[in-house]
Amino acid sequence: MKRAISASWRIGSFHLATKKRNNKQMKNALLLMSVILFCWSCNQQKTVKIAEQKSSINYQLIAHRGGIIEGRFNEFDPKSLQAAIDSGYWMLEVDLRPTMDKHVILQHDASLKRIYGVDNSPELMTLSELKKLKAIGNDYAPMTLEEASQLCQGKVRFMIDLKPQLSAPWFYARVDSILTKYNMLHDALFIRNDIQSSFSDGKFGFRMAELAEFLKRMKNGEPITQKYYLFDHGNRLNAETVRICQKNNIEVCASVNIGHYALEPHEPGARRDIEYLKKCGVTLYQIDSEYDSYFEK
Description:
Blueprint: H1 2-55, E1 60-63, H2 78-86, E2 91-98, E3 104-106, H3 113-116, H4 127-130, H5 145-152, E4 157-162, H6 169-181, E5 189-190, E6 203-206, H7 211-219, H8 224-227, E7 228-233, H9 239-247, E8 252-256, H10 266-280, E9 284-287
Parallel strand pairs: 1-2, 1-9, 2-4, 4-5, 5-6, 6-7, 7-8, 8-9
Antiparallel strand pairs: 2-3
């Protein structure tokens, strides 16, 4: 009888201990699950914040050759400038050339043949003669810088490419005067820096090969960040160069144009370079309009 009671007691004690152990394991499991859920929640919040930060990046796009041209308009068609303005471009890149009678027109090539069918240079023609031309397949004549400024004032900025490498002082003075008249000089970006002393305001581009020189000039007290910016092809720029510029508060502008991809299909090449530069923190891009969809949020 005593043995039976003792065995019964031992069995009861065993079940009680088992129950306590199971309860403890359950509590530990619940605690572990709570910790896991808490960590997951924190990570999700962090992910959402990162996503929000990425989506809030403001990319500033500069329309190459004056506006939206690929598949729609010719270069420097007034309609192409207006289309870029309507699409929200931050800036338009305009190529400038002088006329024989000291006006300034928007024209990329040295010859007028490709756009206007005339094998002549604008430097050898008067504005009156140029205004009689009609673009092939279109009905517009060369625009003057004055006309483009009237169209763009208060709506969009200019990136300026002065095409003749050796120009008379009057040409620079005329460009300076027109941009000043329409309050567009201060925000203008000039692609070249060798003409900086000819202008009263604006910022001037230098290339990767010149970075060491400009950092040395900055160290010597020259206000580089106020007057200059780095401008180079998107398939040349690298993370180290961008990092150095960011550290020294030098603005970086990547140029991503169809002509930069002669050795590969341009669309995947441009997408690759843009995504890479985005990760580097570059926010300013001069692009052909075919690539603007790569910046949609």
